[in-house]
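Annotated sample (chain length 544).
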Amino acid sequence: MPITDILERNCKLYGNDICLVEINPEIKETRRVTWKEYELMEPNPVTHYRREITWSVFNEKANRFANMLIQRGIKKGDKVAILLMNCLEWLPIYFGVLKTGALAVPLNFRYAPDEIEYCLNLAEVDVLVFGPEFIGRVEEIAESISKNRLLFYVGDNCPSFAEDYISLTANCSSQTPMIALTDADDAAIYFSSGTTGFPKAILHNHESLMHSCKVEQNHHGQTKQDVFLCIPPLYHTGAKMHWFGSFLEGSKAVLLKGTKPEFILDAVSKEKCTIVWLLVPWAQDILDAIDRGDVRLEDYELSQWRLMHIGAQPVPQSLIQRWKKVFPNHQYDTNYGLSESIGPGCVHLGVENIHKVGAIGKAGYGWQVKIVDENGTQVTRGEVGELAVKGPGVMTCYYNDEQATNEVLRGGWLFTGDMAQEDEDGFIFLVDRKKDVVISGGENIYPVQIEDFLRTNNKVKDVAVIGIPDKRLGEITAAIIEVKEGMNCTEEEINGYCMKLPKYKRPRQVIFADIPRNPTGKIEKPKLRKMYGGESLVAVQNKS
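Output written by the structure step:
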């Protein structure tokens, strides 16, 4: 069934139940209360930093947006891009798009103006919905992108180059639009990138989205009583597809805008969260804050918290060992996935397999996996090869890119580009990435983009950007720079030059050295990683 049917069902069965809570702890209260004081307050107290909606309101908002889009000429097969920070409006807008038969196209909130425009054009987007954090970026490209698409603004003080979402939807019908949908209908486009850093548009259908709901619920056993704490951005398949398990059961989710340890523990305590998905840096920050005494566990009610799971990057074994000492009653799981396989879950460790921490696990619910050599032949257990996955969650294609599609989709199998090996018990371990993408704090950073930028500096002869291990972020970027003969260059100069880049793309380390290239002219990045401590995180863990 199309995933929109689940929302209709939840509205009928649980209409008055709270489904989404938004918490923004950066908006300070006059006095923060402890969880014990909080328990004595009225049920679901409303503060200026906390908002909530019911399943009935969720569905109503989705319907109003869908009907507004239809009134403005949006039809089945059109595309609507969403450029919002996590907020209560995000998911109703997403489902409103799906209810029209159009495709939802979430955009990375880190995109610069030129990247936003590139993705809008690549996916042939008809509508852009954006929030207040993006006014400046959208304004830079408004003249060119508004020529063939609608711009809707979600927030206060609508800019002159867009239309106001709130006023447009206020008087629209709250009835479900009668648009026939099937499992095979296109549903969403997400963005990924290869080693060149140019985003690819990943097309998924409704069957794919529904499968992610089933996978997540099967892996983690969500019930109506669970409360899911969602911290990562909703544009990311990982965050949304983990929430899909709660969505399938009609249980509550909390959208937390902030990653400080005290914010996370406060939200778990006050909202009675039972499931929390963390990135490695956030988990490490919590443990470090506890060790320093910055937070005290006795100040929070955490007994209901049953599951902590991590994804988006390799997980250090030492981190989970530390975590289990502090939280011995927590179940733990890790997930492996790609946007091309509708996010997490095509491979997962399983809460019953904590003795195998370090592995990404086995094939997930409804998935098949294999490890193959360069000819696509399955390797012998223990040998290293490329990981391939197959299942109902594999993308339809890279939109408008037949060549790239054919490179990774073969016979229904998705070739991930990740190198892996299987141990004697059938558990899969990642060995290295076939691509040179650096994953820092769960975010993909593409070295070629940074290299191309640094080569515009007139003192730079050659440059290579690699990932090197970092305890907190998993990896950080290091720029190895070969300076032109007769010139002097300092780290301060390079750091100042890189201020033109978005913050997350700025190299965290600068190293001045010669750049080794092989006979065909390619930079020998494996050699650089070995020289400067940038071997894969998994390899470093295995040596420790």
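Annotation: The first helix runs from residue 4 to 14.
Annotation: The CA atoms of residues 289 and 295 lie 6 Å apart.
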